[in-house]
Amino acid sequence: MRAAVLTEPGPVTNLRITELPVPTPPAGWVRIHVKAFGLNRSELHTRLGLAHGVTFPRVLGIEAVGIVDDPNGSDLAVGQQVAALMGGMGRVFDGGYAEYTVVPRANVIPFESQLPWNVVGAVPETVQTAYGSLTIGLDLQPGQTLLIRGGTSALGFATAALAKDLGATVLATTRQKDRLDLLAEYGVDHPILDNGSIASVVRAITPNGVDTALELVGTPTLPDTLAATRVHGTVCFTGMLSNKWTVSEFYPIDYIPRGVRLTSYSGGAGDLPAPVLQRFLDRLGTGEISLGPIHNYTLDDIARAHDDLEHNRVVGKLVGLP
Predict the structure, then answer these.
(1) How far is CA 141 from its chain centroid?
(2) Do 152 and 225 sit in the same domain of this protein?
(3) Are 250 and 130 part of one and the same domain?
(4) For strand 81-85 and strand 63-70, is the pairing parallel, antiparallel, or unpaired?
(5) d(Cα 269, Cα 87) in Å, to the nearest integer?
(6) Are 88 and 44 found together in one domain?
(7) Long-range Cβ contact pairs of 188-191 (< 8 A, separation 24 or more)
(8) What's the predicted TM-score (pTM) here?
(9) CA distance 145 to 233
(10) Whether 14 contacts 310, CB under 8 Å
(11) Is CB count within 10 Å lower at the N or C end of the chain?
(12) Above 80 in pLDDT, residue 246?
């Protein structure tokens, strides 16, 4: 089979298309014929050498969608549509940047959909993270306000869609003026141009501050996001578009505004119930919900895809097609 193998951390040239044996699933694992895979900043961090516990060479990819090729005695059936995500994919063991991948059964979520594979490929990890952030991280309720810091990321679009579906009012930021209309097009109630300090703009819309906020940019904007949130509101730290995720000399009393709650979210396949994934795909198919822009790359274009991801050249989700 063909796979994109990262030989060692470094430039995109270290991602090389390689012929590998089709993997055999060990006990408790299944083999999937990959039809599409999403690209994520997690894989960018691995390529840049920012991830811990990864050995090389490694087939990257923390998610993939396709059909079951070898159920290996599990409850799945040959030909069944499935998504596989997280749980060590592309880090501890080889992931989705390949024609076939083997993963633990616990990483696999079955579904049924008539959507094109490139569309389905944009869904699993993004929706899992969005859903987990809104439920576990923020406990978002109907009628509340949500600020998304980093709204034109794939995760930003997905979170906005889920939040609107729940009945929330969504504010979302972008650093580029020409993307404000795009946010509005995909359902954001209040697109905000982000100059690094937007708390006063948010409070002009919601004087007491937002009920909830999702931080996707990272620690550089986190203090301002906290300042935009009301007393007893919650900020969830989920993303690191800035590639910066630590706070030096953290002094909580000075850093966190009085009464504002700061939490975080990271998770895996177990946080995305199959009915939630199925509902999202069904509503995506009917046009009732949107995932945002999707950009397709062949496996041979994987280096270009990573370069686009690293330099934020495209808006929305990048999807690879083996």
Answers:
(1) 21
(2) yes
(3) yes
(4) antiparallel
(5) 7
(6) yes
(7) 188/148, 188/151, 188/160, 191/151
(8) 0.92
(9) 10
(10) no
(11) N
(12) yes
